[in-house]
Structures are given as C-alpha cells and as structure tokens.
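Technical note accompanying the year-one report. For the benefit of new consortium partners, we illustrate the data format agreed upon in the data management plan: each record pairs a sequence with a structure-token string. No post-processing was applied to the example shown here.
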Amino acid sequence: MNSRLGFDNPLAAAALCLTVAAITTMIHVKAVDLPNREFQLKWHQAVIERRAPAPDQYRVLTFAAAEGLRRLTGADLIEVYAGLRIALTAAALFVLYRYLRHWFSASLAATGVLLVGAALPVTFFGYRMQVSDPAQFLFFALAFRALQTDSPWWIYAIAPLAAANRETALFLIPFCVAAWWGTVPPRRLLLRTTGLTLAMLAALAPIYLLFGRHEPYAPVFTLLANLSNPVRIIFPALLFGWLWIAAFADLGSKPVLLRRLLVPAALFIALHVMVAGFDEARLLLPLVPVILPLALFSMGDSQSDYVKQSAFSTTR
C-alpha cells in the first residue's frame, strides 16, 4: 500500500530535503557564521568592491546573489547567506533524490539524502567563510542528473553559472567526457566537449578580464603540507565514512556510468590534494553523486530496493 506521505510523493521528498537543509544551515550559522560575523562582513564587502584576494574575487555568483538580496530586502548579511544556503542545499538534495530514485526505491533514495544530511556538518570545519559550496553542490548534482538522463543541453545551460560560482566547475568537463566516451560517436563527443568548454570559458574569461590579477590568500601548492600531516585526511574520510568501502564492493555489478565517473573522481581528489587544504571535507561534496549511489547498490536489503532502469546500463 502506497502512502500519500511516502517519499514517492514529490512533496514529501521535497519536505525531507528542505528539513535537512534547514537543520544543517542552523548548524552552519551557529558554528561558522555567527562566530565570524565581522570577518564575513569585511570579506563580502571586499569581493563586492573588487579588492578581495584570489580565488574568491573570481567566484562572483553567490556573492552577487547575496548582495542583491541584501539590497532588495534590507536583511542582515548572515540572514541572506543562511537563506541562500537553505534554498540551494534543499534544491541540491532534491536533485540528488531524483538522481538516486532512477536506480533505487523511494525509501533507499531517501536514506541516501539522510546520509548526506548527517555528513554535511563535517564539511563546515576548516574555514571562516566559504559561500560557494551549496551552489557548487547543486550544479554538480544537476550535471550528474543530466548525464544520467543523457540531457547534454541541461549541462550547457548550467555550465556558465557553475563556472561563475567556482572555477573548479571546469572539472565537469572530464566527468562529462568520461560519461560520454564510447556512448556517442567521436564527432559528437568532440562537439559536446567543445561546446561545454566554450560555455565555461564564456563565463570565466570576462570575470578574469574584469578583475585582473589578484594575489591568492593561501599557498597555491599544498601537496607537501597535505602529505606531511596525515590528520588532514580525517574530515574528508568522515564525509563518506564506511560508504567508501561499500562503494567499491562488488564494483563490477554496478552501473557503467558510475564506474566511468570514478576516473575523473580520482583526478578530482588528486588535484585538491595538490592545490587545496585537504582537511576541508567540503571540497569533496561534488563527488557525492558518484560515491553515494555506488555505496547504496551494496546496501539494499532486497532486489525490490532497486529500480530496473539504467544509465548507460547496469547489470542489476
């Protein structure tokens, strides 16, 4: 018997995602935003006045949205960023739910959302202000959903916005190439990749030309610092926890799409080990749509937990 309150009901699924987003945002406000109120005000103003250090000066989308909302509503800046975080996180979780629902039962897809919600606070450590993460999570979730349904035009549409939010959105290109490789003719693969790259550059090039060169606020090369301090791996490891193990169990029986995405995922991790403080688990949020479903395929209690649909085919 199907309940109207079951997660097959889009409203129930949306309510779950909104609740998780609201709870985790409250934690973020208490743990990060309020203790760093003065710093955040100054940092935000520096970005708006074009005098912030790299790379935040080039990550304009979320800062501009917050400034526009602050001027429109007259709300406190922390309230504006909290509202954005709730909305963007809820949207990302709902897209993630629909993405998981392609392969799994409603209950298992909802379990995936709850697992992410439980882990999200781990991503709040190691910084005083990082406002682009929720939008980054949303854009990657949308892109993976588009890859799953073979809807490249959706990826072209979000690419400039993702790039204007954070330059690491460029990593969507290798993820897309990995998904499309062998599934579309070489000529179409080349056209899709070129179109996606140009869409990204159409946003990034004007931003960099407009603001010019800004010095970075942290060392660019961090490989030695990351490798010399094993403690830095604690929070990234906790983000997925035992899901890391479940994801790689019986890997050959899992969807081809997800297996292909592991290659650019490994490159994504390697890049961040080399050029970022790897103690910040938030950096790995774009990998949730890769690791989480791989793990869920090892977690179902019965065959009824899996939906007989495929994304580039699955042997299940």
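Partners are asked to follow this layout when depositing records. Residues 10-305 form one domain.
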